[in-house]
Each structure stands twice: as C-alpha cells, then as structure tokens.
Amino acid sequence: MVPLSWYLVLSAIVFVLGMLGFLMRRNIIIMFLSVELMLNGVNISLVAFSHYMQDLRGQVLVFMIIAVAAAEAAIGLAIIVALFRNKPTVHVDEMSELRG
Amino acid sequence: MQYPDLGPIMPEIAFIAAALVVLMLELVIKRKEAIGFLAIIGIAVAMFYMKGSFGATFQSASNPQEFMFVSDGYSAFFKVIFFVNLFMSILISLKYLKIEDSLKGEYFSLLMLSTSGMMIMASSGDLIVLYLGLELMAMSTYILAGFMRNNTRSNEAAIKYFLLGAFSSAILLYGVSILYGLTGTTNIYRLAGLVAAEDVHSSPALLLSVVMIIVAFGYKVAAAPFHMWAPDVYEGAPTSVTAFMSVGPKAAGFAVMGRVFLISLSSYKVEWTTILIPVAILTMAVGNIVAIAQTNIKRMLAYSSIAHAGYAMLGIIAGTRMGLAAMMNYLLVYAFMNVGAFAIVIMLRSNVVKGDELSDYQGLAKSNPLAAALMLVFMFSLTGIPPTGGFMGKFYIFMSIIDAGYIWLAVVSVVFSAISAYFYLRIVVLMYMKDQEKVPELSLSPALSLSLIISFVMVIAMGILPSAFIDVARVVSLIL
Questions:
Q1: Residue range B173-178: average pLDDT?
Q2: What is the separation, in whole angstroms, between the first and last Cα of chain B?
Q3: Do B163 and A31 touch (CB under 8 A)?
Q4: Distance (Å, rounded) from C-alpha B91 to C-alpha B126?
C-alpha cells in the first residue's frame, strides 16, 4: 500500500506549483488555472486523509470543493469576457486604470 | 434515517427562497425600484423566522454532540448587522444605479444571495459549512463588483477581487485540510478538544494550518499585509456595492474568526495571538497612514475600512467575552457610520459630476448645510469623537484589550486613532472652511434620505445610550 506521506508530498507539490504559477504568471487565464491547481492539491490531501482515517468527511468536502470550483470557473470566465469586451487584453499588467 | 430539524436554518431557507423569487420577478416587473422593495420584504420575512430559530441542526450520524449548523445569539447578532447593511445598501443604490444606468433586478438578488452566504458563515458549526457560506458570499460579491459591465474600471475591480478571493479560499482550504488530517474532524466545536491534545498541540503542522487560516481570513477582512486588493476594488466597484462590501464581508469574516479562533483554537491562543497582534498593528498603521495620501474619497474610505478591521481585530486578540462583545458592537456601529458616509458620497454623484474626488467636497456647507452636517457626524464617528457611536465602539474595544493585559497595544491603537483624525477631519475642513468652486447638484431621493436619517439616528443613539447595545452584545456572546 502507498503510504500516506507520498500523497501528502504530492499534494504539497501540486499546491505549491499552483501558488507559484499564480504569483509569477501575468496572464489572467493562467493565473486562474493555477488557482484550480491549488484546489486540486487540497483535494488530493483531503482524499488521502479521508482514506487513511476511514472517515467520509474529507471526501464530502472534496465534492463541495469541486462543485464550488465549477461555479467559480463560470463566474471567473464571465468576468474575464466582460473585461475583454471593453479592453482586449488578458494581461494583468495592462489593467492599471486603478492605481494599485 | 432521521429527517433533520429545519427550524434553526429557516431564516436562511426563507431568505434564499426570497432571493430566487426576486430573481424570477425581475422578468415580469418593469419598475426595478419595486424589486428593491421586494428585497426589503425578504429581509422582513427572514427576520420573522429568526425569532424562533435558536438551536442547532444537521446532527452528525456518528456523534450526537456534533452539529453542522448552529443558530445562537452570536450568529443572530451578526445576522442583524448583515440585514442592516443590506437594507441600507438597497436604499442608497436605487437612485445611484439609475444615474449609472445599471439598475437591473439581478442586482438585488445578488445582494440577497451574498447576504445569505454571510448568514451561513455566521451560523456555521463546521468548517465545510463555513467554506460553502464563504464562497456563496464571495462569488455574489465578485459579480456585484463588476456590475457596471460597460465600465472598464468596474471590470478591473471584479477581476482583481475574483483572482485574490479565489487564491485566498484555496489557502483557507489547505489550512482546513491540514487541520482535518491532524484531528480527523472538521467540526468547529469538536476541534476544540482535539486541538488541545498534546501530540496535536505541539505539532508544527498545526502552526502551518493556523497561519494559512489567518492569511485567508486576513484577505476576507482586508487586514494588512493582505489588503492590497481593497483600495482598487473599492474604487472601481459601483459606490453602492463598495458600501455593501466594506461592511458585510468584513463582519462575516470577523464572525467566523471569532468562532474558529475562540472556540476551535482556544487552547492554541498563545500562538495565534502572537501572529494576530503584529497583523492588527500593521493593519492599523497601513490603513491610517496611507489614507492620508489619498485624493479619491472611495480610496480613502477603503483605507479607513482597512484601519477599522485592525481595531475590530483587537477584540479577538483580547480573547474574552468582553472583547468579543466589543468587536460585535463595533461592527454594528461601523455598519451605520460607514454606509452613512457612502450615502453622502452617492448623493454627490449626479448626471454631470462624478463626486468621488475630495475636491468635490469644497464648500459643501454653504450650498447644502444639512448634507455637510451629516457628513461631519459620520466623519466624527469614524474618527471616534464623542458623542458618536464610533467613540463608544472604540472605547469598549480598548477597554477589553486593557482588561486582557495588553496595555501597550491599547496605547499603540490610540495613537493610530489620533492619526486618523487628520484625514477624516480634512473633509470637514474642506466642507466648512474652503470656498466653493462650483455648486454641485445633489441627487436626492426619499430612499437615500431615509438611509441617512437611520444611520444618523443610530450613530448618535449608540453614542448616547451605549449600554443598551453593548449589554445585548455581552449577553449574546455567551457562547464562549
């Protein structure tokens, strides 16, 4: 049987990759994909814990996360499309109308 | 299988149903103001169900002591704050959205769904429910921030809010998954006993999980150093939405912080206060000092809302019932004074003037003495000058933190509070002591006037009769 720690290491790697992608890439779509990667990292660790402890709570939370992520994708892409209609760019550095 | 008792969750069910009815009626009703009125009826219905809703529901099958959803005095107090915030936001948005040409029925439905997310957060007895409420609140607010969809600034605000919001909830979830791995539960009340166990308590993973949870909640309440999104989003979003989201999500964030830190992690208090104290000081410093340099009033109020998050956080750091009650009282008065100030900002928005630059306030006292006087009261209250509610709110917060033994922290906060007088009173100076360049045309409406009257009366009432409010807060914070 694969030990728990392997799954946790995998989950940490996926999560950190997503985090780095979010912080380093400047394309909105890629940044958004990186957030999804972070959520999947969380899902791996939750399922691993859930299986290891024989407790269903973690898997319930994973289903909730998947459902919420789908809704989030719909909203996020809608916002990106709304922006793209007014200003044809998907680059965060070009969004500088608000000083920040 | 036993059917769960729906009594405690009835206010949320009724409110979400009302939000969906409002969404449907938008198709048939042409006068959009009427839809705003329907949303207010929805609030009344939810308030009606709240009266008899105390209790806990959605019992765990394995452990009869565990509940997913808790409706107690603590959550009821926060729900009142959310309803006040929603009611006032609806009143101030009617005329404003018409001027901006984005008065659509979905607006009210989204406000209601966001508020129901906050209600679920305040009542959550389990981290899963907390997460779902948080996402319901956040996603509705992302759309609201971008509601003026032909306006690039509004789009930009929505994108920034969305990306950082999604990022912060991923961090929250990783913290929750570590907590789950350590203890085997996500129930807020059951975690309390499990975290206290020696092997969990000394584990470095617990510290990592707590840090991640603090980062995520810090994003939600706009605490420094996680505040970077707030000024941009507050400036770009429609002003009525800015008013709504500078109070609601913040109060909801503090509601869950109170429950998670003071119940689940109560045995870990030494560690999380060590992290929260620098965060609170930095939040007050950034909010109050950077606000001085702002020339746009929406940006200035954004930094002021960051600073107020720092004050409210002191109530959690105190970690006592008194501190929690002071925080709740402070958030209630903040709802009134902040929405009141935004109502004046909205009043200055007319067809010709944008009204969100500080220079637009020059000489307002001559052309419209009543509006200037109301703004004066709200600015005094935000600064914390008696006899306004803002003073009593800060007074109770500082008293609770001194009682908890952090005298130096109270001194630091008072110093920052004194700095804040500079930028709040600058508006008063502009209104009363500068000559007018152009006479602004105010966009008044009965609904806006009503919201101004309510916030004025409440700000003064909470300053003159503070014990009436703090006593209620003290009684309902009994959960601890």
A1: 96
A2: 32
A3: yes
A4: 34
Residue B480 confidence (pLDDT)? 54
Task: Give me Rg for the CA atoms of chain A.
Answer: 17
Number of other residues whose CB lies within 10 A of the CB of residue B415: 12
- In DSSP terms, which residues pair with A27 in a beta bridge? A91
A45 touches chain B (CB under 8 A): yes
Calpha distance B445→B325 (Å, rounded): 36
* Dist CA B28 CA B24 (whole Å): 8
Give B47 to chain A, closest Cα distance, Å. 28
Q: Taking CB atoms and an 8 Å cutoff, what residues of chain B touch A18?
A: 170
Measure the CA–CA gap between B255 and B404, rounded to whole angstroms: 20
* Distance of alpha carbon B230 from alpha carbon B221, whole angstroms: 9
> CA triplet B132, B138, B141: central angle to 5 degrees?
145
How confident is the model over B386-403, as pLDDT tens digits? 889 999 999 999 999 999
Give CA–CA dist B284/B278, Å, rounded.
10
Give the residue carrying structure tokens 């600073």.
B307
Inspect the interface and report whether the beta carbons of B177 and A58 lie closer than 8 Å.
yes
By three-state DSSP, how is residue B238 classified?
A: coil
| Contact residues on chain B for A11, CB-CB shorter than 8 A | 177
Looking at residues B10-34, what average pLDDT do you find? 92
Alpha-carbon span B193 to B85, nearest angstrom:
35
Collapsing DSSP to helix, strand or coil, B174 comes out as helix
Quick one: average pLDDT of B3-26? Answer: 92
Judged by a CB distance cut-off of 8 A, whether residue A97 touches chain B is: yes
d(CA B105, CA B463): 37
Per the CB < 8 A criterion, the answer to whether B146 and A79 are in contact is: yes
DSSP annotation of B197: S
Verify whether the Cβ–Cβ distance A61 to B176 is below 8 Å: yes
Is the complex ipTM more than 0.90? yes
Cβ atoms of B100 and B148 closer than 8 Å: yes
Q: Which two tokens stand for residue B208?
A: 């990592």
The residues, ordered by sequence, that sit 6+ positions from B34 with a Cβ below 8 Å of its Cβ are: none
Q: Does B163 touch chain A (CB under 8 A)?
A: yes
Q: Is the pLDDT of residue B199 over 60?
A: yes
**Confidence at residue A99, expressed as pLDDT on a 0 to 100 scale:** 66
Half-sphere exposure of A17 toward its Cβ, with a 13 Å CA cutoff? 14
Q: Which domains does chain A have, with CATH numbers?
A: 8-93 (1.10.287.3510)
Angle between helices A28-53 and B152-183 in degrees, nearest 10: 20
Please answer whether residues A43 and A66 qualify as being in contact, where contact means their C-beta atoms are separated by less than 8 angstroms: yes
Q: What's the gap in Å between the CA of A63 and the closest CA on chain B? A: 11
The region of weakest confidence among B108-112, B175-179, B196-200 is B196-200
When pLDDT is cut at 50, 70 and 90, the band that residue B247 belongs to is very high
Are B306 and B230 spatial neighbours (Cβ–Cβ below 8 Å)?
yes
Query: Around A11, how many Cα atoms within 13 Å sit in the side-chain half-sphere?
Result: 24
